[in-house]
């Protein structure tokens, strides 16, 4: 008898990193179970039990193929290499480089500076928000310029890629948590609104995930 090893995503419904992995799993049609890890109120990620799953005590963590992978971009890359179809990568070296540029702008230049874990290092929530909004705005300016040169129907040409999976969750954070106005960045805003209408992002949207958790 063949025993199928279940794929499990440890995630927090509002986490942008969790959302990009959740979207990647859906895009590649990989059946999985999502186990919620509350990183705000209950702080389950800081327990010794979760440390065994992810030594960094962060989300997401993906249990797949009999092993555990941490860090969202490492997870997406693993999914791409082990399950190349449908692909999340453009078809030329240059376009793949453009995709990685956008991913890095978001994953290295915006997301870490929005991370809720930073808030305790500021005297007030307001000071943390001021700090995060400044650096998010810098990142949005860069994205605006990049997307003007790389985009087609999606962030890079006419094929959905990891760049889109990074863009939507981070802009959702910017708009909902930090009340940022994207109108100053019309190209960024256009793609955000357009991508939100894609079934991929509707199905994996935090509101739907939170609803399922409550039910």
How does this model look, in words?
The protein is an alpha+beta fold. The protein folds into 2 domains: 8-86, Glutaredoxin; 93-203, Glutathione S-transferase Yfyf (Class Pi), Chain A, domain 2, CATH 1.20.1050.10. Helix content is 53%, strand content 7%. It has helices at 16-27, 48-53, 72-82, 93-107, 111-114, 125-150, 162-176, 186-196, 199-203, 206-214; strands at residues 8-11, 33-36, 61-64, 67-70. A 4-stranded mixed β-sheet has the order 2-1-3-4, with helices on one face. Strand 1, helix 1 (16-27) and strand 2 form a beta-alpha-beta unit. It is globular and about 45 Å long. The protein starts with 7 loop residues before the first strand and ends with a helix.
Which key terms come to mind for this protein?
215 residues; alpha+beta; Glutaredoxin; Glutathione S-transferase Yfyf (Class Pi), Chain A, domain 2; 2 domains; 4-stranded mixed beta sheet; 10 helices; 53% helix
